[in-house]
Design brief:
heterodimer, A: alpha/beta, Rossmann fold, 6-stranded mixed sheet, 4-stranded antiparallel sheet, 8 helices, 26% strand, B: alpha/beta, binds adenosine-5'-diphosphate, binds magnesium ion
Amino acid sequence: MTGSKKKPILEVRGLRARVGGKEILRGLDLTIQAGEVHAIMGPNGSGKSTLANVLAGHEGYEVTGGQVMYRGKDLLSVSTEERAREGIFLAFQYPVEIPGISTAYFLRASLNSILKHRGEEEIDPIDFLTLVKKKAKLVQMDQSLLNRPVNEGFSGGEKKRNEILQMMVLEPRLAILDETDSGLDIDALKIVASGVNAMRDPERAMIVVTHYQRLLTYIVPDRVHVLSHGRIVKSGGKELALELEEKGYAWTEIDSPAPAAPTSPDVPAS
Amino acid sequence: MKSQGIDLFLSRFPAFDREVAAYGPAWLRSIRREAIARFEALGFPDSRQEAWRFTDVKPIARTAFHLVTEPASNGWDRAAVERLAFPGVEGERIVFLDGLYSPELSHHCPVPDAVRIQSLAAALKEDPEPLRPFLARHAKVEENPFVALNTAYMRDGAYIRIPRGEQIRQAIHLLFLTTAARRAVVTHPRILIVAEEGSRATVVESFAGPGDQPYFTNAVTEIVVQGNAELDHCKLQREGRGAFHIATIQAYQERDSKVLSHSISLGARLARNELNFVLDGEGSECTLNGLYMTTNRQHVDHHTLIDHARPNSTSLECYKGVLDEESRGVFHGKIVVRKDAQKTNARQSNKNLLLSEGATVHTQPQLEIYADDVKCAHGATIGQLDEDSLYYLRTRGLGPAEARTLLTYGFVRDITERIRIEPIRAKLETLVLARLRGAGRKREGR
Ligand SMILES: Nc1ncnc2c1ncn2[C@@H]1O[C@H](COP(=O)(O)OP(=O)(O)O)[C@@H](O)[C@H]1O
Ligand SMILES: [Mg+2]
């Protein structure tokens, strides 16, 4: 499993995390090589978003154990914004609205902070506009949305496309897409999928978090993992997604180690 | 409240009265005398009075302010004035130094014959009669001692009169500057704007002064908007950090008139703005937008009163506050709907963003409704920056300070966006952003 040829982009070992006093991730292992797309599937509440947020650096999630290496370096001690500048991108399951700030303005500020971190010059505003318009076309996002406040009054599908647009502009090394497919109709799903596929690159890795197999017919993953009660309980090739679709998540629980009741924290009472 | 400050204002008055009587009309002299008598009777307000419960003017009452009688010759040159002006605003600019008109720093444009845009002192000296039906008719001295004081000591300021049907497209910019002085200076700027039937105009009032020195601006603006006329009024308060700024804007609106008002309060150690709008004509409409941004130990108070006196009038009010460090904000919004004023439509909102633990705000709506067929809505909120939004911005590579700045800027833009004069909006947004970035750097430095 350990890459002897290449160094993995992401290496998660025995990760434990809690939120609101409750342990959600309970010893999670995951290794991703550059160029790969991994799907993470699992029922609602299994900890998919928690994993995504822990990787992105949400301060509300407390890591209680394990380790995460990103491109060979410890990730957990790095601030949220530094992670983004180092190339981690999270497409939110529920994108946030930012009143008063246009997507174009915000995205240019983002790109510039990343460029600055790399010691590169800020992007020229005109060049930026050309770039963002080109990418917006790829995800078939109406250009007028670029000048509207971020996600404010956007439909569910428009918000998700905005996430993909941001990913395309910021060009991360590790992209985590948290249920980007949920709430999309089939046409929107295809657009989003083609945007993601266009981003596939030997230098880039992606984690596609999804609840349904549907997305994975358009974004064909290299690996599929099943998350249950805060652990990866099954991993396999793309066929695993189909198998899950057929048999349901209950099937994965059978051969997973019996978890403690999900509501009780994993600490001895004292 | 008795104080040294009051005694000084009272004892100086006879000499002032004699001096200005030389070139003012007699009717104004009696108005002045009544006003000083009223000021004497009222004294400075104290916190036992409901309207002054949260705003303590003792520091004003305690200070012996110096009244400037000679135009200042130092402190502000053209370059300094340019920095305060709005690049791209082409129109008339009238500059006042320590309350007195400065012809050197002002810039006049050709306007149609009957239009009056001049210093109040000149208008009172040359042709005072046309002012008589309006001056001191609307801003009442009875209740507010600061209005009384301004009325007693009124000497200069601006007189703007737009004749029937005339439309002045370019903004008229009034710039009130206090110069650095060894003594704490007081000015009593007085502005009279009369928009006659069917006319249109835009007036911008800016106030600014030197750094940390104490000084006192006590301004009164009277606005009369006749039938079908439209006035766009924008006030930008950028006084120095040591300043006291007390101002009343008193507007009187007739049938089908429209006023768009902005009150932007950024400066001063203590600021109190009263905006009183009387909708005394059917179909009249006023929109009151406001923004206050405070830091350090600044205190900014807005008291607004919208009096719906006739049927079918509309008022839309939206004030926002951003309060940082140990600063305090006060918003009191009163709406009166008189018995006859059926079909009134009034909406008020006040939203506040507290950027630090030490900042506070008092917000209070007050509705007095005597008509039965009306639509009134109001709402007030006090909140902090949204954590989820901060997180979202940080996952895009923005540091905490920049994320806070952007979110706050977004909150504020809701107000600045409504300013219709593009160069003013642009300049104000630049100012606000620079200020938020400065605060961010300060926060990070701690
Ligand atoms: N902020 C929070 N406070 C308390 N519990 C939370 C919080 N966020 C998530 N949880 C809980 O953690 C569990 C996993 O949630 P999540 O990671 O969102 O699952 P998924 O994305 O797989 O549906 C759920 O039981 C959820 O209720
Ligand atoms: Mg989720």
